[in-house]
Write a structure and sequence with these properties.
There is one protein chain. This protein is mainly α and 66 residues long. It has a domain of 45 residues. The model has no long low-confidence stretch (mean pLDDT 82).
């Protein structure tokens, strides 16, 4: 995208707004998919029950290291 320079605010306001043609929702969906691939999963899915607080802390530490 090129840089545009203006001499005054009026000239800037009169300039047409450049936007890519296409559906913005499709771009949003692509960004979401990219984020899900890049974001690390830190927690296992589902409900996990622990017998003690220490066991929960050890599991959390192990998951954080991986």
């Amino acid at each position: 995208m090129a840089v545009e320079k203006y001499h005054s605010v009026e000239e800037m306001n009169a300039a047409p707004v450049r936007a890519r043609s296409g559906d913005g929702f499709e771009r949003f969906v692509r960004q979401c998919a990219r984020f899900r691939k890049l974001a690390a999963r830190k927690f296992v899915r589902g409900v996990v029950k622990f017998r003690s607080f220490d066991e929960a802390q050890e599991t959390l530490a192990r998951i954080s290291r991986d």
